[in-house]
Amino acid sequence: MEPGEPEMDFDIHQDFSGDEYDEEAAEDYAEQLFANFVQSPEAAALDEDENDFDGFFWSNQLIRYGIEYCGVTPATMSQADVEEVLFRIFPRKVAVEASHAEDVVIELRAFWRFLQREFGLKNAAECLSVLDDGAIPKLRQKLSDPGNFGVAKSFFMNAQKMGFDMEPEESLQSCVEECNAHPERYPLPLPTPPHSLPSGRSGADPDVVKRRKLREQRKQKRKQTKASRRRNR
């Protein structure tokens, strides 16, 4: 498959809503759809953006949380489903600062435009309507309100503020053990079990980290090229 060319035999209309839920098949679906988006022109346009965009995480989470919590895929998502994931599940589950709200909305817009163009999804326009200009301040408010956090996310965010290194996974476990051993020193809500800690936007996914580094390198190269052009004028 050539770079930028989606996997054409991918079936976006797979159904995981039945009684016999196939977790492995759902995981494969999410991985393939996300991989197709990453190779798309819509993703490439984000990658070339000169702003501080740092995406290719949120669309993956939208797919996975949609299946896991709402029982829908992007092919069957409604406006209400997108609102549920974006404004309720993300603030509750994902460890991310409110300052990244714009990144979230920008990437999800590109994702739904990709779905609309590549698969002709009839629900894409409806889902895109959730991601209007008002979505950014609304999401920013949701992400900044600790009242929206689940116990695991509250622990994660508070531990970060107290100076704990929350990555990689071994550090998470060490943090939980330290807080358990000294509750008088670290009065944090502890997740039960520890492995229920939320996903962070950098995550432990090496592919996400690698893509971020590559984007940063390309961004620096573009800045250097522009600076060189200005000097040569």
Report on this structure.
The chain is mostly helical and 233 residues long. It has a domain at 1-149. The protein is built from ten helices and no strands. The chain has helices at residues 23-38, 41-47, 58-70, 79-93, 101-119, 124-128, 135-144, 151-161, 169-181, 206-232. It is globular and about 65 Å long. The relative contact order is 0.10.
Produce a short descriptive summary.
It contains ten helices and no strands. It has helices at 23-38, 41-47, 58-70, 79-93, 101-119, 124-128, 135-144, 151-161, 169-181, 206-232.
What layout of secondary structure does this protein have?
Layout lengths: L22 H16 L2 H7 L10 H13 L8 H15 L7 H19 L4 H5 L6 H10 L6 H11 L7 H13 L24 H27 L1
Helix pairs in contact: 1-3, 2-5, 3-4, 4-7, 5-7
Structural category:
mainly alpha
Radius of gyration: 19 Å
Count of helix runs:
10
Number of strands: 0
Weakly predicted, low-confidence segments: 1-7, 190-198, 201-212
Mean pLDDT: 75
H and E string = HHHHHHHHHH
The largest sheet is: none
Indicate the percent of residues in helices.
55-70%
Strand content: under 5%
Determine the N-to-C terminus distance: 41 Å
Shape: globular
Oligomer: single chain
Key phrases:
single chain, 233 residues, mainly alpha, 58% helix, 0% strand, disordered N terminus
